[in-house]
Amino acid sequence: MKTSGEIEAVIGDGMRRFQQEYMGRGPKDIHTFLIADLVVIRLQGVLTAAEQQLVQTLPTEKGRDLLKQVRVQLIETARPVLESMILEVTGTNVVSLHHDISTTTGEEIVLFTLAESPLVRRKKKG
Question: Beta-carbon neighbour count of residue 4 at 10 Å?
Answer without folding.
Answer: 17
